[in-house]
Amino acid sequence: MEKMGSHVSERPPITAEALLEDNRSLEAQRRMNEWWNYPTKGLLFTCSDARVGPYQLIPERLGLVSSVAAALPPSQVAHLLRDERFNYVIVLGHHGPAKKGESPTGCGGLGVKKQQEGEEKMAAPSQVLPARPEDFVRTYIESSDVVVQTFTYAEKVAGFTDKPVVAAVVDHTTGEIRVLAFFRRGKTEHIAFHRDHKRIPPLLYAKGVPSLSLGNLPEDIRDLLERGSRVGTQEVQNPPMVLLTYSPVPPEVRYPHLCDGPNKVFRVTIPPEVIGPALENKEVLNPYLAQILYPLGHNLNSHDGSFSGTKILVIEGRNLQEAEGITKILAENETIRQWLKKGGKIVLAQLDERGKTEAVRNFQV
């Protein structure tokens, strides 16, 4: 029997019509019904990276917030942290193969941060909202170490909610998840490492990536982590699609054949409250543009195959006019124009609050 939330293996070509057909499929209807009816959902904060996401757990039990290195300020999604549909929060960082005594690597955003930390004199964060990937990293990511960054961000999230918060990391090559800390009512209740070791990798990783026993967690969170699919993936990130969406319903639920599984979609969450102001003031869109430029810029300049097959950018709005307004602003960017000239395509989608795709069409440059 197929496990609930396990990924669909086939990868049909991604077109506007295929998105609409997939969203209206029986499997999508089943998953969306289960998502809306499941009583104790969690809210998952994770990296946009296509090698990590709800498919490694149980998508029907999770709301989703995706950003580069899972670093979007919690204040920007406070509405979801207050949302009574979500009973707890998981912050999930990711890395590649780990060695004892060494900080594991693998997250692209944290890799950029590592380069910045190596600069003789780091530039101060700009007062202007970041419009380039490196500016997003400099402004929002605090550490290049995956354990430190994930714990620090989860601690921030815990300061915005009284709901239980779990900090965890996943090896995106094996799917193995390790719990770093558990917060309750804004305070650290359990932690897998000594705080004084956070800046000393040989001590922090003396026994490998630190990990708490799942027995320290509430039953619903423990059940989710124990029943996850543990899907590993490729070393190189190369999804066919980039998705900018306001919906917390995971794409694995809404587009099960196109998005459920490793290396299928690079996701960026844009809060719905941002969209209206962004159409009036382009600068408001900068942090989301910066994240989209990460995969599309790599597509133009890939030397290792990363993002070489990324050909589709899907922009989801509450109506097509909203999606088109966002897209017109994005299409003014030189990197996106070059990506379109290379053969990239943009699909606009109108999405209702339940995750149903009402209409789609191709964007005409």
Notes on the protein architecture:
There is one protein chain. This protein is an alpha/beta fold and 365 residues long. It has one domain (16-362). It has helices at residues 16-23, 26-37, 78-82, 108-117, 133-140, 146-158, 201-204, 219-227, 251-254, 256-259, 272-280, 286-301, 320-330, 334-341; strands at residues 41-47, 62-67, 86-95, 165-171, 177-184, 187-191, 241-245, 265-269, 312-317, 345-351, 357-362. The strands form 2 sheets. It has a 6-stranded mixed sheet. Strand 10 and strand 11 form a beta hairpin. Helix 4 (108-117) packs across helix 5 and helix 12 crosses helix 14 (334-341).
> What structural class results from the helix and strand content?
alpha/beta
Largest sheet: 6 strands, mixed
Q: Tell me the fraction of residues in β-strands, as a range.
A: 15-25%
Counting structural domains, the number is 1
Overall outline: globular
Number of helices: 14
Mean pLDDT: 91
Order of strands, main sheet, comes to: 2-1-3-4-5-6
The count of strands amounts to 11
Radius of gyration: 19 Å
Model regions low in confidence, pLDDT < 50 over at least 5 residues: 1-10
Q: Helix amount, in percent?
A: 25-40%
Q: What order do the helices and strands follow?
A: HHEEHEHHHEEEHHEHHEHHEHHEE
Oligomer: single chain
Distance N to C terminus: 46 Å
